[in-house]
Amino acid sequence: MFEARLIQGSVLKKMIDAIKDIVTDINLDCSSTGISVQAMDSGHVCLVLIELGSDGFEPYRCDRNITLGLGLKALSVVVRCANNDDSITIKAQEGTDNINFVFESPNGEKTSQFEIKLMDIDSEHLGIPDTEYDSVVKMPSHEFQRICRDMSQLGDSIVVACTKDGIQFSASGDMGSGKINLRQSSLVDKEEDQINIELNDPVHLTFALRYLNYFTKATPLSPTVTLSLKAESPLCVTYPIGDFGSMKFFLAPKIDDEDTAAATQE
Amino acid sequence: MATVRKRPLIEMIDVLGKNPKKPKILATKQLHLDFGQKFFGPVQCKRCGMLYSYGQSQDELDHYEYHKKITSGIRFDGWKNERRVEAIESFDRVSSHPPMKDTRILLVLPTDIKAHLKKIDSIIAHIDNELGISTTGTLNPNAKLLMCISNRKVVGCIVVESITEGFRIMSNDENNSSSWSCSEKSEPALMGVNKVWVFDSFRRKGIARKLLDAARHNFKPGHIIPKEAIAFTDPTVDGRHFAVSYCGTPNFLIYR
């Protein structure tokens, strides 16, 4: 028997919205410590990692570790039926191939129940190595979303350069080019508007904006976002979810391609 | 004093067309995540045998096309005046298979009309491609082709040719089928089996055996070639199994 009630149902709605363009189905790995999701896109370019601790749910009950395979299409249809202030309860009985969703309005007047068929999704559990990043940048999530959106008008790749002066995002294309510089700020009143750069080594990396624009769909989940960068390694974009979980996106960088560079010069 | 050189208009358009000044865009290549996932890097398709890169859209598209080509077979709508040598009611080992509609073996000669040969050439090219041999794409003038048609598809094909001698295979080691040696002494032979091919999903049903039987009966008019007088070209692993079982001996004849 698995049962978990999320008071803020909107969190689930936002999470599903953020990943439904990247992957088509997910496995919810439920254990006594919480729920986790690991999903890679079909092109092996980015990976989504969701971790929700059991203390974010009230109540949370998981008698045995259980894996629930869900198609995101069905899931997003169902969670869209929930109001933002509803609480969402996820229930799954052992031995059945259905998962139940119960939405309750705050005053308890309206309850809705939905059932989705579970899927048997062949997936493997990947060990994500702990990485020591060269630069870790914490910034307002809406700022990051804005940068990615603006830069995608100029080109399909964004260059992220982190130095001791700050972080620079740049993109160029047929039309022209653009650069956005952000400097470390500590004098802002609100903590979530701060830009905080922890720099061990300067880094300079290129990423596909298409994926970053998928990631920034998670912006409503959190006021801040953390970008962890390391040379020649995947970027890690982290959106904390309250104080009980996080949503992480890993994205493989793009590198200068000598073969195609030579081909285009000819 | 600077002079402005006047160029004809056409030449200027030409210049513009030939050297459009592209803005320099740095070409970049998207890397992939490697967290040790199962389906990563080169994958070999179990059905069509193609090796391709999982997750690379162009490769997957190529594979899809190739897979479709291999698995859907070659369409054959039939000819008005086809040379039917045998009609097949059912295949030996087929029991669960749906009934075969209009299954027959056709004989094609290199002297047949051009329209027929054109179709044959495309079939030969397809088969050679699948067998992995360099293709001429044509039926040799001294060769005969027999093909088995079922449900408007070419499900099997055999090309035989006239030969005078063959060489006996020496190696007795059947388990190691990929390597073998043959005698240097030639023995008389009449019919050479140039290639044998059966459509993937129709294998192990005795189609090749039926084709070869038909070939022996129709190779020379009024004469049935004995099994001992046939020789094979350099066989594949599957081909060798077939030849051994057909001739009833691991020491069958080969020729080049």
TrEMBL record, chain A:
Its main location: nucleus. GO terms for cellular component: PCNA complex. Residues 127-254 form the Proliferating cell nuclear antigen PCNA C-terminal domain. It comes from the Eukaryota. Residues 1-124 form the Proliferating cell nuclear antigen PCNA N-terminal domain. Pfam families: PCNA_C (PF02747), PCNA_N (PF00705). Keywords: DNA replication, DNA-binding, Nucleus. GO terms for biological process: leading strand elongation; mismatch repair; regulation of DNA replication; translesion synthesis. The keyword DNA-binding applies. SUPFAM superfamilies: DNA clamp. It is found in: Nucleus. Transmembrane segments: none annotated. GO terms for molecular function: DNA binding; DNA polymerase processivity factor activity. PANTHER family: PROLIFERATING CELL NUCLEAR ANTIGEN (PTHR11352). This protein is an auxiliary protein of DNA polymerase delta and is involved in the control of eukaryotic DNA replication by increasing the polymerase's processivity during elongation of the leading strand. Belongs to the PCNA family. This is DNA sliding clamp PCNA.
TrEMBL record, chain B:
It is found in: Nucleus. GO terms for biological process: mitotic sister chromatid cohesion. Pfam families: Acetyltransf_13, zf-C2H2_3. It comes from the Eukaryota. Keywords: Acyltransferase, Cell cycle, Metal-binding, Nucleus, Transferase, Zinc, Zinc-finger. Residues 30-69 form the N-acetyltransferase ESCO zinc-finger domain. One of its GO terms (molecular function) is protein-lysine-acetyltransferase activity. One of its GO terms (cellular component) is chromatin. Residues 187-255 form the N-acetyltransferase ESCO acetyl-transferase domain. Belongs to the acetyltransferase family. ECO subfamily. This is N-acetyltransferase domain-containing protein.
